[in-house]
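Step 1: inspect the first sequence and its tokens.
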Amino acid sequence: MKFVSFIEHNDYEGESWRFWLQLDENEAALNKLQEAIKEQEYSLDLSKTLSETEVDVLVDNSRSGYMAFEHKVKGKFSMPENYSERDYDDKPFYKGGIKDFFK
């Protein structure tokens, strides 16, 4: 299984967190996500992948602050309908919310 890096740059907490997202079976949806989050506080790199073993090492050895800096997220990704990050109350990925879109 391969994983890609999704980084949330959180100015409020002054931290950045990496969520290793399952790429397998999620390629099309993650491509849509990459396009939707351009010029926001998130970045998604689909060009570099890590194996599950490599991700496990990073997660197991992660430093932490407000929350751990490295996370592994497995499952099937569903892009939220009417995605918008314009309004504070409508930030579905805020503080690790990306995990909620994997089932």
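Step 2: inspect the second sequence and its tokens, then contrast the two.
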Amino acid sequence: MAPIWRGQTGTVIVAGLLLLQVGVLFLSVTTYEQISIFCTGPATSNLSWIFGCVHLLLLGLVIIGIVSLTVVKLRVPYIALLAAAVALLPVQATLVNRHVLSCDGP
């Protein structure tokens, strides 16, 4: 029995995760600004660099996700990295609410 991510089911899962990524981006711009890339300041904090890299990772994961629709070997790393990056967004929101990180964008 082949793993679930290899066949058409895997393609549907990756496509769904790509839609989820776009949805999270939309929410970060419109409703939940605390998870936006604009809320990773101040630049002097080590945490800001970590969350800035998380957002760069999310950008790169869009490309990897699109490629993994056809390249099956990329699906598991895409899913794992996406899960880790999305799991850090509530941490960022908490740090923004506690004024450890600040927002400097729209």
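Step 3: confirm your contrast with the notes below.
The chain has one domain: 8-97. The two ends are 49 Å apart (CA to CA).
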